[in-house]
Amino acid sequence: MVLPFLKNDYAKWSLIVLTGSLFASFLNYAFTLIMGRMLSPSFFGEVSAIFGLMVIIVAPTQAISNYISRHISFLAGKKDYLTAKVWLRKVSRSVFFFSLALLFLFWLAVPMLSRFLAIDPLPLIVFSFSIPFAFMLTVYAGALQGLKSFKAFSFQNILGAALKLSLAVIFVYIGLFVPGVMLALAVSLGAVCFYNYTKIKSLTSFTPHTSEDTLGEAIKSIFFRQRRIRLWRTKSFPPVFARALVELKRWRAGLTVFLAALLVAFISNIDVILAKHFFEPQLAGEYAALSAVGKILIYIASAFVTVMFVVVSESHTASSPRTFKAFRSALGYITAVSLPVIFVFGFAPNIVVRIFFGATYIKIAPHLPIFSIAMFLLSLSIAFVHYFLAIRNNSFLFPFAAGALLQIVLISLYHSSIQNIVISVLWSSTFLLFALVANYFLYGKFQTKRESGKI
User: Which branch of life, at top level (predicted)?
Assistant: First the structure.
């Protein structure tokens, strides 16, 4: 019974990524718990605020990862590893310089952020060195996904979480406190980035040595491969305008992925940020703990979504009927794994809270059942978003933006207690899933069937 399950590529890859994701999530939860007990409430609040800020800042990294994963999987599907290697090198260089520019802008914004978050500038400055590592890490993580090296992809998640936890414990113990936690984050990201670089290099080491002319031809083939580039070779269309048209379409696709990643980051973290803004420090810390427990459902779903994105992207490129089947399987797996978790959270919330955060946060237990349902709905919505991205359908952006905006408006209007924010998150998550499902039946499914030759 188990062997046939493991013979299915999607199930096997999902199991590998899920195992790594669960173990990494366990380490991240251990990090949150240990830091909550080693640091004072005020210091722990600072750490939570900076980590929430980090998610927003590195939102483009998810767009970069998806973009690289999609194109590497396309090239790998055609066995064109030389072009994939040269293309990845070119993208890595661009992302590195972009991250340096973003680092400089962050330094300029440190005084303003320090005042807004009521945090000393030093932790923010130490945290800023994580930005280049986070962006480069995304490049290599996306390449690992595209090459279907899911074992390495899972291990790098575990390695990063383990290093962050162990180093943070050491740095806090010796008295570095919040700057020490930020230093642990930067060092762990740098180490994982180096591991991914060496892994990608070994995976592409079989590419034969080529001359500079051959590499130039490989780079040129990236731009001339698609049919629309043939406009460059016609006398009726000036090359400069054709190049501009290609670049516009390419940046339009990248902008879609960026906006999707930004919206996912906002809707997954804006509740914690707004709670920090509206609540007293103690109450904001309690809501952050509630959010950390409930969002384990999103971490679980991310394993299936990661595999689904690669499979759907590759199947869609080949106009295969497997596109819809992979998406349906992902929704089924997410539901099957999430429902038992929701059941436990609903019938034993006190035990769950004590296990994760101890008796100090027992007040959040009554809110856990409703919040877990909201996170389950949100995880399904994120799966829909990645499905639309994989089939290159941009129709999801408006309903997704509407759902994120609804959550901001509801929390801004109703924030007198934790229950108010939990209900606001539930309503916005319900609206978002309903809007994306409706969008799927209006646009997504029709397009998938049309391109698969069913209609």
Answer: Bacteria
Looking at per-residue pLDDT, the higher value among 264 and 378 belongs to 378
Q: 340-379: per-residue pLDDT in tens?
A: 999 999 899 999 988 887 788 888 899 999 999 999 999 9
Question: pTM for the complete prediction?
Answer: 0.72
406 contacts 430 by C-beta, under 8 angstroms: no
Q: Give CA–CA dist 342/52, Å, rounded.
A: 24
Residues 372, 298: contact at Cβ < 8 Å? no
Show the tokens assigned to 365.
């237990």
Contacts of 90 (CB under 8 A, 6+ apart): 219
Rounded to whole angstroms, how far apart are CA atoms 46 and 15? 35
pLDDT of 444 > 60? The answer is no
Distances (CA, A) of 367 to 197, 291, 326: 43, 10, 34
Contact at 8 Å (CB) between 253 and 382?
A: no
Report the candidate in 293, 300, 328 with the shortest Cα–Cα distance to residue 14: 300
The confidence score (pLDDT) of residue 220 equals 46
End-to-end CA distance of the chain: 36
CB atoms within 10 A of CB 345: 25
The type of residue at 42 is S
Q: Across the chain, how many H-helices and E-strands are there?
A: 19, 0
DSSP string, 264-330: HHHHHHHHHHHHHHHS-HHHHHHHHHHHHHHTHHHHHHHHHHHHHHHHHHHHHHTT-THHHHHHHHH
Q: Which residue has the tokens 């106009």?
A: 319
CA dihedral 274, 280, 282, 284 (to 10 degrees): -10
Residue 88 CB-density burial (10 A; 0-12 exposed, 13-18 middle, 19+ buried): buried
Of 352, 361, 378, residue with least CA distance to 436: 378
Where do the domains of the chain lie?
Answer: 1-225, 241-455
Token pair in block for residue 86: 């040269």
pLDDT score, position 221: 47
